[in-house]
Amino acid sequence: MKRVQFGHSPVPYFFVAPQILIIAIFFLWPAAQAVYQSFLLEDAFGMSSQFVWFRNFEDVLSSSSWLKSAIFTAVFSFLVAFISIAISLFLAVRADEVIRGAKSYKTLLMWGYAVAPPVAGLLGNMLFNPLMGDLYKLFNSFGFEFNHIQNANDAAFVVTLIAVWKQVSVNFIFFLSGLQGIPKSVTEAATLDCKSAERRFWTITFPLLAPTTFFLMVINLTYAFFETFGIIDVSTKGSPGGATATLVYKVYVDGFLGADMGGSSAQSVLLMIMVSVLTVFQFRFIERKVHY
Amino acid sequence: MYQSKWRSIANHVILILGSLFMILPVWIAFVSSTHTREFLFQNGLQFWFGGHFLENYGAILFDTAATKGRVTALEMLFNSMVLGLGFAIGKVIISMMAAYAIVYFRFRLAVPIFWVIFSTLLLPLEVRIVPSYEVVSSLGLLNTYTGLILPLIASATGTFFFRQFFRSVPDELLEAARLDGAGPLRFFIDILVPLSVTMIAAIFIIMFVVGWNQYLWPLLMTTDDQLYTIVIGIKQVYNSLYEGGQIPQFPKAFALTIMATIPPVLVVVIFQRMFVKGLVETEK
């Protein structure tokens, strides 16, 4: 905090009031409701409800569809984070090296940040459209018997590809700025000692980028958890049979389309716990980075 | 720096392939949107322009029949603009004020207030959609701009950006201002706000794009077509593509997709330097 501050007065309360008011109404209240409802069991018509302690949680954790969705979310998040980070790092290293056209390449690779996830989903949806999609035709012309409408793995492939495509640009921006933050003297000294560009990358550049990579890992996992909702909702809609429904998508399907309030709230609370762990982890890491 | 000729050529090839990977899907959607639906249906997606640009885009912008609802794309663009601007402006003002209080004042509830604000980072809107929807509906705010924008502002990301920035402002400024007799309000308006202009602009750009691209919340909130944003609108059009046994209106759906994409992309490309600076510096 600041060494010099204003003393006690009602002024700061006036400044935080709008934020606190909005948080109280649109955040604390709904969050408390989610926790409260996760302990309730509603009857089929939503007329009455009774307090059932942890039964909703037991039901959720023991249901095979939730476990299936949890496993899919874990694998999907990891793949999206890993692949998009790998592609963007590869591109960023090359973009950092080129001299001619560097600015154009940068623009061409970073604009994707502004594409909405559902728009990305629609573009993928159209490329894999069985009627006219070029990628659908391409894969089948190689004899893959590609069918994302019925085959769970193919559907997961489509969702992963779209999610990676959408995320490459964000990672690229961070990696490029990380690379440009490495002092020129370090790279020049390394060039004198070692001719192999590949070895220089693994022994010098990559370790220096480790904080960026770690930070991006957290960002990408959060993205794969939450923001891919838009992609899934307009491409596979979780089909076939919930094989591509992430946990967030399942909360929406069960709560809004299936009207299972207790179960959906219990799922929300479980998600809250998972995200909290992830965020605390991230903040502890960042605090440590500041001290170094 | 030493660089072999082959390495340099390889760099360009890789970067061109990477750029194509990013651009091709949007390019295909764009040029396909300038063909007739019969042509697309028979020949598949296109890689070059057809001659129906004005016809398709004109229909989607001004004719409600083309968007399958009661609103034209023009009205949807307007709604998206309201959401993007409202979200960005609201977020900048509210989070800047809160960050000012947290950084520059000593007050009794400072610590609990900080933790309440921090806790919003733990739970994105996506995990509490069902109760949020109930709260907004019980306040009678469904299908209003207020109900659309305010719950999205509840997350405190902006507050943390500004907190970080204010902490880097030299202490001497406040000392000098106080010697000159400036009060808290005066210091905020005359010194801190002008000092933060680039930071405000960067956060504004990022938040505009984030607001424009919102999907899940508007999807739940707006049951009335009049409030559809363009991102929601394209979903509705795609959903109704196969209805009625006609040839699907793919060109118009593509046209809508392109129109939803152009404004935020333009903003990001035009203000590229500011945007990158804001993104990289604030998210660290």
Question: What does this molecule look like?
Answer:
- The complex is a heterodimer of chains A (292) and B (284).
- Chain A is mostly helical and 292 residues long.
- Helices cover 73% and strands 2% of the residues of chain A.
- Chain A has 13 helices and 2 strands.
- Chain A is globular, with a radius of gyration of 24 Å.
- The mean pLDDT of chain A is 84.
- The model of chain B has no long low-confidence stretch (mean pLDDT 85).
- The relative contact order of chain B is 0.15.
- Chain B is mainly α.
- Chain B contains 15 helices and no strands.
- Chain B is 71% helix and 0% strand.
- The chains are: A mainly alpha (292), B mainly alpha (284).
- The interface between A and B is large, with 97 and 104 residues.
Summary tags:
heterodimer, A: 292 residues, mainly alpha, two-stranded antiparallel ribbon, 2 strands, B: 284 residues, 0% strand, globular
Could you give the distance between the termini of chain B? 30 Å
User: What is the subunit arrangement here?
Assistant: heterodimer
Please report the distance between the alpha carbons of the first and last residues of chain A: 18 Å
Gross morphology of chain A: globular
What is the global morphology of chain B? Answer: globular
Report strand % of chain A.
under 5%
Q: Compute the number of strand runs of chain A.
A: 2
Subcellular location (chain A): Cell inner membrane; Cell membrane
Transmembrane segments (chain A): 12-32, 70-93, 105-128, 155-179, 200-226, 266-286
Family (chain A): Belongs to the binding-protein-dependent transport system permease family.
Keywords (chain A): Cell inner membrane, Cell membrane, Membrane, Transmembrane, Transmembrane helix, Transport
